[in-house]
Amino acid sequence: MILSLAWRNIWRNKARSMVIMLSVATGLFAGISVLALYKGMMKSRIRNVIDSETGHIQVHVPAFKDDQHPAYVLPDPDSLSRSISRLPGVRTTAPRSLTQGMLQTATGSSGVQIHGVIPEKEYAVSQLNRKIVNGEGFHRDKKQEILIGRKLAEKMKLRIGSKVVLTFSDSSDNLVSMAFRIAGIYRTANAPLDELNVFVPMHTLNEGLQIGTSAHEVVVLLHHDEDAERIKGTLQKAWPALLVESWRDLSPETELLVQTIDQYAYIIMGIILLALAFGILNTMLMSVLERTREIGMMVALGMGRGKVFLLILLETILLTVSGAPVGGGIAYILIGYYERNGLDLTGMGEELMSSFGFDTTIYPYFPWDNLMTVIIMVILTAWISSLLPAWKALRLKPVEALRR
Fold first, then answer.
1. Comparing C-alpha atoms, which of 369, 377, 278, 270 is closest to residue 324?
2. What are phi and psi of 218, to 5 degrees?
3. Contact 328, 32 (CB under 8 A)
4. Per-residue pLDDT tens digits for 343-385
5. Alpha helices (H) in 198-349, listed in sequence order
6. How far is CA 123 from CA 33, 114, 131, 400, in A?
């Protein structure tokens, strides 16, 4: 009976009921949208880390990670790459030579991380060729070519064909200078790394480093992101003398973001629900005050105060349950659209987004794993908001209520 009475009561004032339903729908829509946007941003960031920065896994000599001295090379990197490539779940591998140095031009200099790469293999691992925004990239018949990031090109006022000099130390700690021509300017979603990293042919860098056909790291790309930790363990068992790290080890700040992203989203959602709570509280309190005489009559006729309290709670919960599917449905439709077509955030500032390593186009992801939590939070907010109006109704004295 209480349930039936509560349902009839909420439709006695359709406008007020619709306001509460709309508030609940808006709150649920906002909560789901915030989670979807955050999850989309994190998926985008992880993709950038894996595809442009670290790969899924990297293999080094342990001593190389301590001071990156050019002498600490991998033993037979070609054989190592072939062996890793044959493992189930591995898509491809690419060896790299690495050193730190100085890029110099007629107008200034800048510290850089120099990557010696095999173009065909590097293109397969990091899609570097797809990120070239100016120029053609490496040519097979030219040894002294270099690819630089757009941020570095703007800083040093360089263009295609400009001559630069790289100065670095070789494996015997001798200072080496080599001249290169800019063959391409690339751009990734991480502007700070674009300013730091330059790419040259591996055989050319190896000549300068005096390391022959060796390499300092092997980058491993997998078919599935979730296999990273499993294959990392396999590689550690197969080559215990080498240092094997996954993208989580190589980019701990991204891993921290992944672990805390739900917390940030829930904080923002909590602020949204707090505003929703005040709206529900105000509307339900008005409803109780307008029905003072009616509630007093029900109590005078024998309805227990507990049932009156339950009646107000049920009215709020029914309004919430009625509004929640509307908010969830709208969120599902809009998020599905942007998940397919992308959400352009260029208006927030391309430089701002790239400075934090994010693309300007985000593909939100509907938070199925958090959906029940969001719904419970919305219902709990509505229930808590109804406690004061219900308590107000509970304190009404029948005689005084009937006089109003």
1. 377
2. -120, 125
3. yes
4. 877 666 556 566 566 677 788 888 887 778 877 887 788 778 7
5. 202-209, 228-238, 247-250, 252-290, 292-300, 305-341
6. 35, 16, 10, 82
